[in-house]
Design a protein that fits this description.
Blueprint lengths: L2 E5 L3 E8 L4 E8 L4 E5 L4 H11 L2 E6 L5 H4 L9 E5 L13 E3 L6 E6 L2 E7 L8 E5 L2 E5 L17 H16 L6 E4 L14 E2 H7 L1 H4 L4 H5 L9 H12 L1
Parallel strand pairs: 4-5, 5-6, 6-7, 11-12
Antiparallel strand pairs: 1-2, 2-3, 3-4, 8-9, 9-10, 10-11, 12-13
Length: 244
Amino acid sequence: MAKVIFETQKIVVLQAQLGDWDNLNHLLVCKKTKKAAIVDPFDGKYWLDICQNNGWELEQSWLTHSHWDHTKGVGELSDKQVWVHAKESERGWDGPSNREWNHQALSHVIQKIGELEFEVHCSPGHTPGHVTFIGNGLVISGDCLFLGRCGRTDLFGGSESDQRDSLLYLRKIMVGLPQEWLVLPGHKYTLSDGISPTFISVAELLQNNEALAALDDDTAWENLDFLGFDDSLAEKARREIARN
């Protein structure tokens, strides 16, 4: 069930956990214009109904990346602006997105929804064109950065070295942010202390995230056990790499 997790004079943010993969969807609403953007919709109709019930206009869908569990709902939003980074085509994505960012890795452009502005940072590694949204008190990190760890890099189009570079880049940015800003990941996963939050502060993330803690030590980074897994998804990625 969607719930308000953050609100200021300018923005209201709803979060819902949808599907069997603990996906977290985030709806961003400009309070002045009542225009909304949904990040990584698992169910398009779900969010259309919520917007209709609240008098909001769902104008845009922003994809952090193009894995199916983050794009499952965009088919129901094809008459909206559906944004994704152009480099997601390197892993075979061909829509139904209809707008593209095309900036370089480790840089950003500005995306507007109503009168709100967000920085769209290209943060590859989990996928070639993964992006992270930063602004208005929020870091929306998709599968690049989870609350306790980071996304895997062994799927088709993934890169361990790119992931490390992206995390170094994002860490530098987050150190300079107000430390009470919230980090909103693409999935809810249990932390090392056994709790399962759906968001934490930037300060908590910088202090406790295992992937960020390993960035400055080659051995520690190489010993991270969550960058790749011996599972069916990894086997599928190996077949896709062989075909290409």
